[in-house]
Each structure stands twice: as structure tokens, then as C-alpha cells.
Design a protein that fits this description.
The chain is an alpha/beta fold. The protein has helices spanning 14-24, 45-53, 71-83, 103-114, 133-138, 164-168, 185-195, 219-240, 244-267, 272-293; strands at 4-10, 33-39, 60-65, 89-94, 97-99, 118-120, 123-127, 159-163, 200-202, 208-212. The longest helix has 24 residues, at 244-267.
């Protein structure tokens, strides 16, 4: 079985890192695996967790500190360290996630069955406190519902596997450091792979879970998050797909989406669930307008960032 690296970037979440490392020690995998942890926090608390576990850990555990602050900088360091380990595949998880035992075997199964260069899996919410009914009804944290093995366009790095050779094609900075404060570096990464003809597929049963803190289940937080999604979607698309045809396509998508939102708003009625869905969708549309206008917000430099 091919050698695999699992990359985790962490920043000030030692408890979360310990949880994900514990979960990785119990996955169903008989092959060769190295876990790469990059700590991006000045206190290096993630390195302390790795040092504590390394002696008796099931897998090879490689930990490093990345002093340059930024999510792209940390992801680049992790990806480059993984490539140095002579691996065939690189998988990624976030430090507020943890995988099911079948997680990696399912990613590898779908990759072998489809021949895909990159395979993504669902990240399911795990709420710290029971959320309001309108949150669950709206499905704001639900993963995509694609069929197992279906071709997809991946956009997020919270749960995916990629051929090491395809990742290496993007050079020493596969994640754009100019997007560290804005977000969207993961979408940019997948757009670049797509332009290179990278085949992508969905592993429905490669499940990871994400901790959802109470502060994230408010309408204000969701509106801010979806506005960021809209602005970075347009901004990243502009970075990768240039020319008049691409610009016209972006504007057409924004216009069509806003038309859809206006219809939803008109039909929203008085129910709290429909009203909330209308507000979130409107926030995404306003974010797309922000992206067209170049009005981008450095979300990742703010306290309590979404």
C-alpha cells in the first residue's frame, strides 16, 4: 500500500490537536503513514502535544513550527514537509476536526476506484451545545450530499486527499500567501489543480467531524461567514480565470444568484427558518458584489473571525 502523509495545521488549539491525533491513532489503515503537524502559534503549544505523544504514537509523527503567521504559510510548510517524506498521497485535516476510523481507507478506496487525482470527503458538524432549531433546519453546516465516487469540484481543504505529484506541480507555495488574511486559499489551490486537468471525486463515507462552538450558531456569524464566502469566491475566480469571457461568466453568475435571492426573499414569508435562509443567501450575494468591486476584508486578522 502506498505511503501516505496526513497534514494538520494548528494554531493555539492544543486540545483539538490532541483529539485529532488520538483519532488518527485509531483509524483503519494497514499501510505506511506519516502524520505532519505544523504549529503556527508563537506559544508552540502544538509542538508540546506532539512531543508528549511521539514516543508511543502509532504512526511516524513529524512536527515543525512555522514562524510566519498565516494559514497559507502553515499549509505550505506542511505540504512541503509531506513531499519530503516520499509519499504517494497527501491528506489534510483541520485541527478542530477528527476523522472516523474508516476515513482514510475510504478516501483511498474512492481514489483507486475512480483514478482521481484528488478526493474530498464530508465534514459533519458536532455542536458543542444543541443549536437552535432554525440552524439545523437550514443545514448551514451540512456537508455536500454528492454520491460516492461522483465527480466534483473541490473547494475546501478540511478533508481531502491528493496525489503528491499533482500537489508538487503547484511549486513550493501551493497556497497563495496573499490570501492568508482574506481566506479562499484552499479554493485557489483547487482552482489551480482544476486548470491543470486534475480529476476530482467525492468519498461519501470518508467522514470527519468538526467542532461547532456556540458562537458560530448565530445569525450574525453566519451572515459574516457567507459574505466572506461570496467575496472570496469572486476574488479567487478573478485570480485564476482571466479575460473578458471569464469576467462575463462571473457577472452572469452573480446576477443569476441575486435574482434567485430576490425570489427567495419575496417568498420567505413570516417563518423564522425561511427568513434566516433568505438573510444568509443575501449575505452571500452581497459578498459576491464585494468581490467584483474589490472590497475585500481581512477576516483572519480580526478577533473572533468566522
Amino acid at each position: 500500500m502506498s505511503r501516505v502523509a496526513v497534514c494538520i495545521c494548528t494554531c493555539g488549539r492544543p486540545a483539538g490537536l490532541r483529539r485529532i491525533l488520538d483519532a488518527l491513532s485509531r483509524i483503519d489503515h494497514d499501510g505506511d503513514l506519516v502524520v505532519v503537524v505544523v504549529d503556527n502559534h508563537p506559544d508552540r503549544s502544538g509542538l508540546a502535544v506532539c512531543a508528549e505523544l511521539s514516543g508511543a504514537y502509532r504512526w511516524q509523527l513529524l512536527a515543525a513550527h512555522e514562524p510566519a503567521r498565516g494559514i497559507s504559510q502553515a499549509r505550505n510548510r506542511a505540504m512541503n514537509l509531506a513531499l519530503e517524506q516520499d509519499v504517494a498521497f497527501i491528506a489534510c485535516l483541520d485541527d478542530d476536526e477528527w476523522p472516523e476510523p474508516r476515513w482514510l481507507s475510504e478516501l483511498l478506496r474512492v481514489q483507486a476506484a475512480t483514478g482521481a487525482d484528488a478526493v474530498g470527503g464530508p465534514v459533519c458538524p458536532s455542536f458543542v451545545e444543541a443549536p437552535p432549531a432554525w440552524v439545523e433546519e437550514g443545514g448551514y453546516f451540512d456537508p455536500p450530499n454528492s454520491a460516492d465516487g461522483a465527480p466534483v469540484r473541490l473547494t475546501a481543504t478540511g478533508n481531502f486527499l491528493v496525489r503528491a505529484t499533482r500537489a508538487a506541480e503547484l511549486g513550493p507555495e501551493p497556497f497563495d500567501t496573499g490570501l492568508s488574511a482574506l481566506g479562499g486559499e484552499d479554493t485557489h489551490f483547487f482552482h489551480r489543480l482544476h486548470r491543470r486537468g486534475c480529476k476530482m471525486a467525492w468519498a461519501r463515507h470518508a467522514v470527519a467531524y468538526e467542532e461547532i462552538a456556540p458562537g458560530r450558531v448565530t445569525m450574525e456569524w453566519l451572515k459574516e461567514r457567507w459574505r466572506r464566502y461570496g467575496s472570496t469566491a469572486v476574488h479567487v475566480d478573478r485570480m485564476v480565470y482571466k479575460g473578458p469571457a471569464a469576467a462575463a461568466r462571473r457577472l452572469g453568475r452573480t446576477a443569476a444568484y441575486l435574482g434567485f435571492v430576490l425570489t427567495v426573499v419575496c417568498l420567505a414569508g413570516l417563518g423564522i427558518g425561511p427568513r434566516h435562509r433568505a438573510w444568509v443567501r443575501l449575505s452571500y450575494g452581497l459578498g459576491r458584489i464585494d468581490g467584483h468591486r474589490g472590497r475585500l476584508k481581512a477576516y483572519y486578522q480580526q478577533p473572533g473571525r468566522p
